[in-house]
Amino acid sequence: MSAEERRESVIRAATAEFARGGYHGTSTEAIAKRVGVSQPYLFRLFPGKKAIFLAAAERCVDEVVRAFAEASEGLRGEAALHAMANAYTRVIAERPELLMMQMQTYVAVAAAEQEGEHGFGDVVRAGWMRLWETVHLPLGADIDQTTDFLAYGMLINCLVAMGFPPEHRVWEGLYPSARSKGRLEH
Amino acid sequence: MSAEERRESVIRAATAEFARGGYHGTSTEAIAKRVGVSQPYLFRLFPGKKAIFLAAAERCVDEVVRAFAEASEGLRGEAALHAMANAYTRVIAERPELLMMQMQTYVAVAAAEQEGEHGFGDVVRAGWMRLWETVHLPLGADIDQTTDFLAYGMLINCLVAMGFPPEHRVWEGLYPSARSKGRLEH
DNA sequence: GCAATTAGTGATTGAGTACTAACTTACTTC
DNA sequence: GAAGTAAGTTAGTACTCAATCACTAATTGC
Q1: Separation between the CA of B21 and the C1’ of D12 (whole angstroms)
Q2: Interface test with A, best of B154, B157, B174, B175 (most A CBs within 10 A)
């Protein structure tokens, strides 16, 4: 397998592992095991653990952004809103590690900025802005609606992270589609 | 100082440290240093690191719940909403570690449940329900408004975690009061 | 005044972990 | 078929960290 292909599978494996354990709660050995490769080999593919985390974080934003962009393609306003809400529901059901990784990325910023890692926060914030713009335009550039959509998304992320089963009361009041699929499967 | 008083200051110190580094990114020595006590002594006050984390997490929920309950005391509907929004703004400005610790608690659930720690998720979810009820009643038991309020709260948490400065565009569309004070100070 | 309890420390241990160095194996190319 | 290169491994290092043990100093109760 080529190094580039390996790097891809490392990113996928790292996303799953970091999504569960966060940066400090995930060992490079766990990632290597999931990839099916020796642990030291990771350091040939990436300069270090932080680089792996960052690559996974960026890939994660890419995928969510792409899901929203594809869902809303050619649509505006309410139609785009529903399309994107459904798309997010699919992400929750099929790729829960994407949103868990997002959460892990957010909480990693403060610690990273306190240590020397001052580039990390910029990357995360840039990712958020990319997500923001991606939903902003299809929603007719309406700031309030964009904020609303993202706010509900973050609430859903938190509920999923906490492990509330989809039939639980807390899902009342959310997109019906999200309610029916909110379980984080293992 | 009595053991009980010490435990209190450990909880305060642990909240601050865990809020920054999360469970795995925080050493018991860092907590001990902040308390001004030797690291082994923590294990006389608490059975282990997990117990310290859990105590801090529960305390954190207590304080936020109390802030909301006090703010909304005697108020209903819109008045209660504004009072609680202002209260949350004050928490953001004065006790940012409370909301960062909440985020850290949420992302810690999945990892904890995967290992043996199956009680942890229940505690976190119970804390969320307590918070939910605390805002639900003053808002006239309106589920949609409750969901809305909490959704905006979670969005604010994420923005604060990412370190967006209060004058940044992403704060547009949020409570004006939150916009003016959203910075996480160090 | 002494016995017991309480608050607290220093030294240590054993497990885990990011990362390095040196080596191996297989494929390509001339 | 030799030389080079790309993919991958084994062994090891230096370090961090949660937790334990054995000990000390002060306070309290009788």
Answers
A1: 30
A2: B154
pLDDT of B186 > 80? The answer is no
| Total length of chain B | 186
**Protein-contacted positions of strand D (CB under 7 Å):** 6-12, 16-22
Residues in chain B within 8 Å Cβ distance of A19 = 110
Q: Does A170 touch chain B (CB under 8 A)?
A: yes
pLDDT band for B117, please (50, 70, 90 cuts): confident
Mean pLDDT of B81-108: 96
User: Is the CB of residue B77 less than 8 Å from the CB of residue B145?
Assistant: no
Length of chain A: 186
Question: In sequence order, what are the residues at sequence separation of 6 or more whose Cβ sits closer than 8 angstroms to the Cβ of residue A49?
Answer: A23, A28
What does the alpha-carbon distance between residue A179 and residue B113 come to, in Å, rounded to a whole number? 22
pTM over 0.90: yes
| Element spanning B153, H or E | helix B143-162
